[in-house]
Amino acid sequence: MHFNTLLPLLSLLSFTEAAETLLGAYIFHRHGDRTPKSLPPANLTSLGYDQVFSSGQYYRSRYLTNSSSKIHGLNADIVKLSQLAVTAPVDNVLQNSAMGFLQGLYPPVGETIGVQTLANGSSIQTPLNGYQLIPVNTVSTGAGSEDNGWLQDASTCENAKLSSNNFFTSNEYTNLLSGTKDFYSQLVPVVNGTFAASDVTFKNAYVVYDLINVAEIHNASIPSNSTLTPSTLFKTRTLADTHEWGLAYNASDNMRAISGMQLAGEILIYMNSTITSGTAGSSANKLGIQFGAYASFLSFFGLADLPAANSDFMGIPDYASSMVFELFTEAAVPSGGFPATSDLQVRFLFHNGTASNSSEPVVYPLFGGSDPAISWNDFANGMNKFAVSTTQDWCTKCGNTTGSCAAYAPATTASATPVPNKSGGGDGHGISPAVGGVIGAMVTLAVILGTIAAAMLIGGLRVVSKKTPAGAGVASQSVGVEKA
Ligand SMILES: *[C@@H]1O[C@H](CO)[C@@H](O)[C@H](O)[C@H]1NC(C)=O
Ligand SMILES: *[C@@H]1O[C@H](CO)[C@@H](O)[C@H](O)[C@H]1NC(C)=O
Ligand SMILES: *[C@@H]1O[C@H](CO)[C@@H](O)[C@H](O)[C@H]1NC(C)=O
Ligand SMILES: *[C@@H]1O[C@H](CO)[C@@H](O)[C@H](O)[C@H]1NC(C)=O
Ligand SMILES: *[C@@H]1O[C@H](CO)[C@@H](O)[C@H](O)[C@H]1NC(C)=O
Ligand SMILES: *[C@@H]1O[C@H](CO)[C@@H](O)[C@H](O)[C@H]1NC(C)=O
Ligand SMILES: *[C@@H]1O[C@H](CO)[C@@H](O)[C@H](O)[C@H]1NC(C)=O
Ligand SMILES: *[C@@H]1O[C@H](CO)[C@@H](O)[C@H](O)[C@H]1NC(C)=O
Ligand SMILES: *[C@@H]1O[C@H](CO)[C@@H](O)[C@H](O)[C@H]1NC(C)=O
Ligand SMILES: *[C@@H]1O[C@H](CO)[C@@H](O)[C@H](O)[C@H]1NC(C)=O
Ligand SMILES: *[C@@H]1O[C@H](CO)[C@@H](O)[C@H](O)[C@H]1NC(C)=O
Ligand SMILES: *[C@@H]1O[C@H](CO)[C@@H](O)[C@H](O)[C@H]1NC(C)=O
């Protein structure tokens, strides 16, 4: 009798104990605790520095020092720069977070390791007890992410702005805007030092939440203390979640998820280089690390169908959260070589907030499936359904035809040709991207919302918005942001 239950258990055990070798990984990481977006420039705080440093220590113990989970061939103590690629947008909070993380990942090597002997026989150790220098390169997207409240500010993709703006005309948005008026008006005394009362609405759900969240962590004397009950704080956060999810992803209009598409492209390209280097007998390109904003997490979560695994993925990840793609094999790794591509597998892990020995990242199935790991080919095919990997693809999807995109513009020569209506399909608003680019400014959007007959207004909007600098509209979304 007992054998019946034991057998499956045993086979499960032998399966999990099959020798597994980790061959590479890609980490996408949120910054640590910072000052509010509404008071730019935002800075990484001491707490935030500590968070990313701890996370770096955790990943060091996972990928560099633990013999059963280390990445095959990755240097454990002295960094070999060709094995790493560390990137972050041009943004102080994200760049500093990446540096803090690296200090935990590759700490100073001390007085003995890494000493160099010169021609004249004297020995040299680097300053700061063997501190290691690791460059953080910039990625083209997401500049100034942490100083902007309106998520598409960090994108120059026209169709993404248009698509995100569609959220502001959705029923979900308009219902919440009117349904939460009273809720937000009771928050006014708490935030009126930073926001005008008229700006404290669902329209600014994230920046209002962000300001309160930062004050809850840092300010011992936050005003109107009695207002900020646990249930009020919870509602402030979940409304911000809904707001940001709506801007970051929509299944039937997914151009707004461009940051997730680009991230998917970057992950694929890097992991592909892990495989090509390994196959060529090189030890390069083993660990990719990118720091980025929560909005990129949300867009990616939506595209990879992670809410099917857990609806928590529709919430904003906490500071210092990380998601990881691990490339591994259960086949033998030939010495100096690499397993066949058909023997490679990928799994996805996520940790909400700072990962540590006592709270490790958890595996979730990708693409709405149920397998904790999938073959490399299935992974690449799944990602390629939405990944944007080339400039040409970006330009076409974004509807950009000028600047670096001019080379890929449609052959028609007329200079003012409207770009193709590729805003993600099916929105039926009849707003062409040419107009949408203008609408990208939130001031004009407010005009739309204030008046119901949107279609009638479109002609008028062109006139209004031509007098409105794009930046001004943006600032009205991210209220309290004086300068980007
Ligand atoms: C961030 O630091 C700069 C100085 O480096 C300071 O001027 C600014 O006020 C700080 N921001 C906040 C929100 O504290
Ligand atoms: C090394 O990793 C394995 C598997 O992830 C884990 O079970 C073990 O506790 C780790 N060992 C140490 C010393 O952290
Ligand atoms: C050896 O060379 C280094 C660098 O040029 C110099 O700083 C050091 O003083 C030299 N040591 C001796 C013993 O000459
Ligand atoms: C895309 O188009 C917009 C509007 O024309 C422009 O502001 C932005 O700089 C363009 N981006 C690129 C990368 O060409
Ligand atoms: C904020 O609201 C409180 C309470 O209504 C009021 O006493 C205070 O003067 C206001 N502060 C500002 C800067 O408007
Ligand atoms: C903390 O909150 C109080 C009350 O609103 C405010 O006067 C003070 O400037 C805040 N302190 C910081 C460091 O933000
Ligand atoms: C409100 O103030 C009390 C005492 O001053 C403090 O214990 C409590 O943590 C404060 N609550 C919030 C939400 O800040
Ligand atoms: C890596 O990318 C190249 C170029 O797109 C492709 O030909 C190759 O099949 C990819 N390798 C793997 C292992 O997917
Ligand atoms: C992360 O935690 C926050 C609350 O701190 C929650 O709103 C969000 O849904 C969580 N995300 C995931 C993927 O667990
Ligand atoms: C985590 O585990 C590793 C390996 O067991 C150990 O070296 C490290 O000190 C631990 N880190 C913390 C913060 O406990
Ligand atoms: C552009 O819009 C027209 C009419 O709304 C539609 O038939 C066509 O499929 C759209 N093209 C694209 C690329 O979305
Ligand atoms: C998602 O897009 C569809 C089609 O454009 C639209 O009907 C719906 O309102 C959108 N939902 C949100 C939350 O933006």
Automatic annotation (TrEMBL):
Single GO MF annotation: phosphatase activity
Chain ranges passing through the membrane: 438-458
Record keywords: Membrane, Signal, Transmembrane, Transmembrane helix
Signal peptide span: 1-18
InterPro entries listed in its UniProt record: His_Pase_clade-2, His_PPase_superfam, Histidine_acid_phosphatase
PANTHER family to which the protein is assigned, alphabetical: ACID PHOSPHATASE-RELATED, PHOSPHOGLYCERATE MUTASE-LIKE PROTEIN
Family designation: Belongs to the histidine acid phosphatase family.
Name of the featured protein: Phosphoglycerate mutase-like protein
